[in-house]
Amino acid sequence: MNKLKNKSNVIQEYGSQIALVFLLLLLSIISPEFRTIQNILSLLRQSSVNGLIAFGMTVVILTGGIDLSVGSSLALTALLGAGMLKGGVPAPLAILIVLIAGIVLGFLNGVMVVNGKIQPFIATLVSMTAFRGIAMIFSDGRPISRLGDSKLLLFLGQGQFLGIPVPIWIMIILFLIFRFFLQNTVIGRDTYATGSNYKAAALAGISIAKVKYLVYAVSGFTAAFAGLILVSRLGSAQPTLGSGYELDAIAAVAVGGTSMNGGRGKILGTLTGVIIIASLNNGMNIIGISSYYQQVVKAIVILLAVLSDSNR
Amino acid sequence: MHIEMTNISKLFGTNQVLFDANFELQDGEIHALMGENGAGKSTLMKILTGVHQKNSGKILIDGKEVTYKHPIEAEKNGIVFVYQELSSALDMSVEENLFLGREITKKFSVVDKKAMCATTNEVLNRLGLEINPNETLGNLSIGQQQLVEIAKALLVNTKVIILDEPTSALTDKEVDKLFSVVRLLKSQGVSFIYISHRMEEIFELCDRVSVLRDGRYIGTKKISDTNKDDLIKMMIGRDLGNMFQKEIIPIGKPVLEVKNLTKHGLFKNISFTVHSGEVLGFAGLMGAGRTEIMKTVFGSFKADNGEIILDGKRINTKHYCPGDAKNAGIGYIPEDRKEEGLMIEKSIKGNIGITNYDLITSNGFIIDKNKENDLSKKAIKELSIKCTGINHLADNLSGGNQQKVVFAKWLYTNPKVLILDEPTRGVDVGAKQEIYSLITKLVKNGAAVIMVSSDLPEVLGMSDRIMVIHEGTIGGVINKDVATQKNIMTLATGGTINE
Ligand SMILES: Nc1ncnc2c1ncn2[C@@H]1O[C@H](COP(=O)(O)OP(=O)(O)OP(=O)(O)O)[C@@H](O)[C@H]1O
Ligand SMILES: [Mg+2]
Fold first, then answer.
1. How far is the CA of B39 from the centre of ligand 1 (A)?
2. Phi/psi at B100 (5° precision)
3. Which end of chain B has less Cβ packing within 10 Å, N or C?
């Protein structure tokens, strides 16, 4: 009896990981091209942008919120960075400013949610629209390219370390940091508590406001970081960059088993969700499934993942 | 309707909570179901109505074996469960709530508002309730919400109504109202299963009583053939002994002083002092403003005026929040455990952790899993929380055991002042006694305790002094040696006592 229960618990707990393994096996059997190391690495590299954004999204969702503005924040900060680089600002400084700008944009969301008492969906819908608009104005609707040949910038998106692309390293490191904070620190507990029952959390002496500022700022930060990787890979930034990315990130979080009501979920789940979605995209491209059908398949996978998760 | 449940067993996972339990309900009676927290009362009733499925046993209704798969089925057959934790749509109107899921419709599924309002009025009248069908449910008092829930039962052809601790959040007046409704329905042939921890109610209202202990059926008695001590013995398996574990403790220096605390519309000019080693009781009618006063002292509400002085130091109330209060050494156990006390979907461990970071981290930041586990194990042991272990979800604990978890959250923070808001609501006699001895232990160690309670015997039994609050002001202060239920009630209703 006990063993049985444990078994079902394991499936419960690691459902999305098991699904990922099956998906990878399936795609590997169907397509020899898919199962090459080269392809797996490129798949992971492609997933890193969504991965970073989804990490930030996870902590916001854990508090019971949502951040629709990530795609727009990404565009705005990327343009800012590109503009600075083009204007001759040294890359390390430009990168630092981009990351700080991301934090500031996220913090603004936090201010709307906490001080303005606006519901997160609406608050970040406002900033999503506003940031995109400002990005358009700032760039006059045109891409900013020819950003110089800073080694550091190139390294972020195109470099390799120990044979593995740098964006993958960034994703892994951020994953470990997020996991550590969520699982092992007081801040992590406060984040879960806020989403679980904010009244009880407040009466336990937790500052809900601080937690919310923090998670939105973190989400802004990861969006900006993801933007840097994109700019490095593309060698340019344009005002439409990252549109729709918020939905990919939310999908990854959902597939990873995090409750949209907050309070429950894991960063490992999100990482898994990110890779599931990336594998689907990549695998279906290789196999040659038309992009129309790809959408439908993706939708089905997301639906199945969410249905199979009893934690909903 | 005659119900007979025999040899019911139930396991949640590997945790067996009912062992061959029996229960029998006769036509037209009010049958009390009693037992300690976690004895399995709610579970047994949930099995009857199909919320949970039994593992073994038999349910006969009017001689025919039945197994309901879903509460809707039970409802259709005339058995309605009014839950311990109300489950209504608070943003919707009374009428909408009554008809939720069984709306009267015209052609094309258009709801027939007129017909529903008329029926609502009729049902409310039948119960003698003056409630506007269009009022938003959330605006009603808990007592009225409870009555609406019962009114719901009248829409279907109900023969049995199960009330699970219906009075734990009601004022005395509301309890009277509820009882008169119950008696009215009884006279119309409805029978009741009545779960409660309040002895007086059982003796006032019920015809027979059945007792469960640790998931086992102990026995059934006619109310006229039993008494309080007898029932307690059946419930806990021993004599209770001294209920209030009150000891004479020398009163120390003042710890918390509150001066002229005012919040417009809620309370004004509240001043009091609690000393170390003292239990200061706060009595009053429900809605008198006691909870609001305590939440203000704890920083959850902002005061408009007044001072809070802790250990001789004035607290700056401008940016005062619960975090500050906690750091200063004040603890607050809220009255509504589900809404404000617990994270219902988290484990015992997770719930106890969030107020005790000092104890479960090594440097105030990184959680030490061993310390965390140990703390919860200690709490489970010291408060005898009935559970499967530190990972038991709060939601799956019985009501009284949930209350103990909320208590445990603050017990280990070593508060200088601990504010308890209705600390024993929904708690069984044995656990009450345990909580009282915990309170005594706290004050013995020099803490000051403020105890807000609507349970007069408890206020009288535990307090050194009693502040009586009447409509947001201090009605009077009574010393323990002269306090009686009568003079507390006089002050609580705005009267004066002549010495
Ligand atoms: N869904 C569940 N999953 C696991 N355990 C449960 C579940 N529901 C109840 N239990 C356990 O079953 C036992 C009986 O609980 P129940 O709610 O029936 O007690 P009760 O007699 O109603 O107590 P109280 O007076 O405190 O409300 C408890 O130990 C509780 O932890
Ligand atoms: Mg119960």
1. 7
2. -55, 120
3. C
Tell me which ligand sits closest to the C-alpha of residue B46: 1
The Cα of A311 is separated from the nearest Cα of chain B by a number of Å equal to: 10
Tell me which residue of B116, B144, B118 sits closest to B130, measured CA to CA.
B144
Domains of chain B: 3-236 (3.40.50.300), 254-492 (3.40.50.300)
Give the pLDDT of residue A4: 43
Ligand 1 centroid–CA B100 distance in Å is 27
Ligand 1, atom 26, residue with closest C-alpha = B37
- Give the nearest chain A residue to B321 (CA atoms): A205
**Sequential DSSP letters for B96-112:** HHHTTTS--B-GGG-B-
CA of B209 to the centre of ligand 1 (A): 20
- List chain B residues with pLDDT less than 70: 84-88, 498-499
Per residue in B279-322, pLDDT (tens digit) is 999 999 878 899 999 999 999 999 999 999 999 999 988 889 99
pLDDT at B86: 64
The whole-model pTM stands at: 0.84
Interface residue B355 vs chain A (CB under 8 A): yes
Which atom of ligand 1 lies closest to the CA of B38? 19
Looking at residue A223, what is its pLDDT? 98
β-bridge mates for residue B60, sequence order: B4, B65
Q: Which fold has domain A38-308?
A: ABC transporter involved in vitamin B12 uptake, BtuC (1.10.3470)
Q: How confident is the model at residue A19 (pLDDT cuts 50, 70, 90)?
A: confident
Rounded to a whole number of angstroms, the distance between the first and last alpha carbons of chain B is 56
B266, two tokens: 């809620």
Sheet of strand B216-222: strand arrangement? B64-65, B56-61, B3-12, B15-25, B216-222, B208-213, B30-34, B191-195, B160-164, B79-82
- Residue of B340, B369, B372, B418 to mutate for A, most A C-beta atoms under 10 A: B340
Q: Is B168 in the pocket of ligand 1 (CB under 6 A)?
A: no
A5 pLDDT more than 60: no
